[in-house]
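#lab-general

N.A. 3:47 PM
ok so I finally got the sequence cleaned up, no stray characters, all 371 residues accounted for. can someone with queue access submit it? mine expired

B.Y. 3:52 PM
send it over

N.A. 3:53 PM
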Amino acid sequence: MNATTLMEYRRTHIPVFNDNKMKLGVFGSNVSYGCTISLAESTFEPTYKHNVAIAKKADALGFELLVPVGRWKGFGGPTDFNGTCMETYTWATAMATQTAHIMVFSTSHVPTIHPVVAAKQGATIDHISGGRWGLNIVCGWYTPEMEMFGAKQMAHDDRYRYASEWIQVIKQLWTEQHSDYEGTFFRVKDGYLLPKPVQEPYPVLINAGSSPAGRDFSAREVDFNFVSIDTLENGKEMAADVRRRAQEYGREIGVMTYGLVVCRDTEKEAKQAYDYIVEKGDWEATHNIMRILGVESGSFDSQIKQFAERFIAGWGGYPMVGTPEQVVEEMLKLSRSGIEGVILSWLDYNQEIQYFGEKILPLMRQAGLRT
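B.Y. 4:20 PM
back already:
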């Protein structure tokens, strides 16, 4: 399949390659408290039944993707944030059987699963979903989780070298038969996998690498990089850099991000709701996360506090707080900066995604972001 044929196949068969200027997804509904590190009241619960309700609403609204959080251990604090988590290959299979059009992703920590097993599970889910499965590749940054598997945390750039071999083994299994692989970390003799995935040449691959090594990995190996945006200017620079790196490898790559939505009929109501989420925030869990990420410093107290508030409200995602019109304006800003999709979180997914569909989606169509 040549590049032109592949592009046309993906545009017509795979939701994340459709013509919508701003793709939409749901992020983190499989874990306790979702992406909100707060004790603010919500009907949300990380159960199968509740996830099905959210997934069906997203599917009916025409969202393109469901992306779970890969988690093995909570972050402590009163919430033990994300401590309850549905495993993501199993979760993706279940969501696929309950939806018709939306893509379902598995978020996979590469040190926790052998690539032969990941390739087999992924191909199976791709068949169950009718070609709607995708893989979110995570190198594993939370050391206590990796230690559960008896794995020593690798140096940062070594994680990406390991991930590169991991995904190369998987790609080879998905596209070849009776092939060998010999690398630094993996050795596969007479690789065999049937059935092959439904998607050609293989399922959609995504990654959120933001460091130089992470950007290079994405540019070389995956279809979409999910950049973390602190400012629009930085997001624009990162999107351009990832695309430039991909071109150097003779490839094209899409760029998406993740964001939190607090939308109400008036700006005052939205800001009050956001402030309440922060007020009820689990600061202990948030500081635990920030310590692991290495972003705490006494020299930048005000910046650190603002950063922490964004983590509480939506795992550090791009904040969209205000009226439906203001949320759409933020979507337009993201689009103009080179972002072509955003996976969203809310305090109360099941309730607020319905409001999103009623109030925000029509305005996105008017703005030319959705067809």
